[in-house]
Design brief:
Strand content: 5-15%
Mean pLDDT: 91
Number of domains: 2
Shape: globular
CATH class of the largest domain: Alpha Beta
Helix content: 40-55%
Structural class: alpha/beta
Distance between the termini: 14 Å
Number of helices: 12
CATH topology of the largest domain: Rossmann fold
Number of strands: 6
CATH superfamily of the largest domain: P-loop containing nucleotide triphosphate hydrolases
Low-confidence stretches: none
Length: 308
């Protein structure tokens, strides 16, 4: 049994994490556990860069298409589900590869966070929602940043995510939980993709164009036609809310691409905070030859474990 073992691939949006994970999973016959909050939702495929049907058939994926648009994911639920999967995969004598861009999910798994069960604070939610409507979300974010450190929270422009983050902070949960599972032991290999920022920006712009050409706007139209609410969790994620603005004639097509890019760049800055180049736990590999470097590191890691 490959007990308590895990491989994690981290990096910024559009740095090639998913493609690398697929190639490595195919070679080593390992399954993949998704750690991107957007990929949890059924039917939200184009704007989330969800793996294709073909890719999903080649490699076993977990934590993809597990929630309906009405459902809300939360850290405690995600960690509980993922830990069961990791244990089951290890017991089947295999090692999961976790890949995605949600920092809390990744470090929560690796570091054994045990976050508190935080119940909804309806009064606080109503109060913040009113503030957002009255003065705009940017001003509300600025005001709350004077009280709390919001640097590690991604996609703050998403009202649902922002309100939930403040709800957690007001309850005393600071994001990287001080509460840890007892006897938490994971043997983890963390690979980080190091990519030049200009190259990364170019790839993001190309990806946005590709998504739009694949029918992203039509995907959003279809969801709205089928009764998906504009303020549902997946529709409030990066890109989907901008497409909705476009459909409501608040953005032109060129402005749509620009705004999605701007929102994605903000997300990248948060990802940089979660996955720092100075973190010695992360083995950084170059974007240009990420597969060969990752292949060598994993092969060596596996052979060392077999020798023990």
């Amino acid at each position: 049994m490959k007990n308590n073992r895990l491989i994690s691939i981290v990096g910024t949006t559009a740095s090639g994490k998913s493609d690398l994970a697929l190639k490595l999973a195919s070679k080593f016959k390992f399954p993949i556990i998704n750690t991107d909050s957007k990929l949890l939702y059924k039917g939200f495929n184009i704007g989330t860069a969800k793996p294709s049907t073909e890719d999903l058939s080649k490699v076993k994926h977990y934590m993809v298409d597990v929630l309906d648009y009405k459902n809300k994911s939360n850290l405690k639920w995600f960690l509980g589900e993922s830990r069961k999967l990791i244990s089951d995969i290890n017991h089947s004598n295999s090692i999961p590869i976790i890949v995605g861009g949600t920092g809390q999910y990744i470090w929560g798994i690796i570091e054994g966070w045990d976050p508190p069960e935080i119940k909804p604070n309806e009064k606080l939610r109503e109060s913040i929602q009113k503030e957002i409507l009255d003065i705009g979300i940017n001003t509300v974010i600025e005001n709350y940043s004077k009280k709390f450190n919001l640097d590690g929270i991604s996609d703050l422009q998403n009202p649902r995510r922002f309100i939930r983050a403040i709800e957690r902070l007001e309850s005393g949960f600071l994001g990287n939980s001080k509460n840890k599972l007892k006897d938490h032991k994971l043997d983890v290999l963390i690979l980080g993709i190091n990519i030049d920022r200009k190259v990364n920006d170019k790839l993001i712009k190309l990806r946005i164009k590709k998504m739009l050409n694949l029918g992203w706007i039509q995907e959003v139209k279809s969801h709205l036609k089928n009764g998906v609410k504009v303020d549902s969790p997946p529709m409030m994620s990066i890109g989907y809310r901008e497409v909705n603005e476009f459909l409501n004639h608040r953005l032109s097509e060129s402005e749509l691409e620009e705004k999605i890019f701007f929102s994605t760049r903000k997300l990248m800055r948060h990802q940089d905070n979660w996955f720092k180049k100075s973190d010695k736990r992360i083995k950084w590999i170059d974007f240009e030859n990420s597969y060969s470097q990752a292949d060598n590191i994993i092969s060596k890691w596996l052979s060392e474990k077999e020798d023990i």
